[in-house]
Structures are given as structure tokens and as C-alpha cells.
Design goal:
Shape: elongated
Number of helices: 3
Structural class: mainly alpha
Mean pLDDT: 90
Strand content: under 5%
Distance between the termini: 54 Å
Helix content: over 70%
Number of strands: 0
Largest sheet: none
Low-confidence stretches: none
Number of domains: 1
């Protein structure tokens, strides 16, 4: 049962990666592309890593993966904000 739930989480994460990729290809300007990619990449990565946590069991590896999730939650939005800020300033 855990394997099935883990695969569902990883599949859902891959779906969000695909949606983010389509957003990058379809959105008209750089700011909306960055927004779409950042949201989908963060959620997709967290879901995939959540599936890996379930696969590894609750061990030291799971703790490391939780630290990776926390790192992604803090750095990805901050990096996207800085990139969007640079894009906005360049347009002025």
C-alpha cells in the first residue's frame, strides 16, 4: 500500500513538472513564465521527494530528504523572486 501511495505522489509530482514545462512554453512574457515554472517546480519536487520518503521508510535518509524539502521551500521562491525582480528592472 505504501508503494502505491509513493508512486502516486511521484506521478503527481511529474505531472506538475509537465504542467510547469507547458506553462513556460505557452505564457507570453518572462514574468508569467517564471511564476508558472516556480510554482509547479516547487510543488512537483516536494511531491516527488515525498514519494521518496515513503519508499525509504522513516530513517536517516528520510530526515535528509525532509531537509532537502525545507531547503527547496526556502530557496526556490526566493530565487524566483530575485529573477523576476531582475526581469522587471531590465524592462524599465
Amino acid at each position: 500500500m505504501i508503494d502505491l501511495f509513493s508512486m502516486m505522489l511521484m506521478g503527481l509530482g511529474l505531472f506538475f513538472f509537465l504542467v510547469g514545462t507547458l506553462g513556460v512554453l505557452r505564457f507570453p512574457d518572462a514574468l508569467t513564465r517564471a511564476h508558472g515554472a516556480a510554482k509547479c517546480d516547487t510543488l512537483g519536487a516536494v511531491l516527488c521527494i515525498g514519494g521518496l520518503i515513503l519508499q525509504s521508510g522513516f530513517s536517516f535518509t528520510a530526515i535528509k530528504l525532509i531537509v532537502v524539502i525545507l531547503f527547496l521551500w526556502t530557496t526556490n521562491p526566493a530565487a524566483t523572486h530575485m529573477i523576476a525582480k531582475a526581469i522587471y528592472r531590465r524592462k524599465e
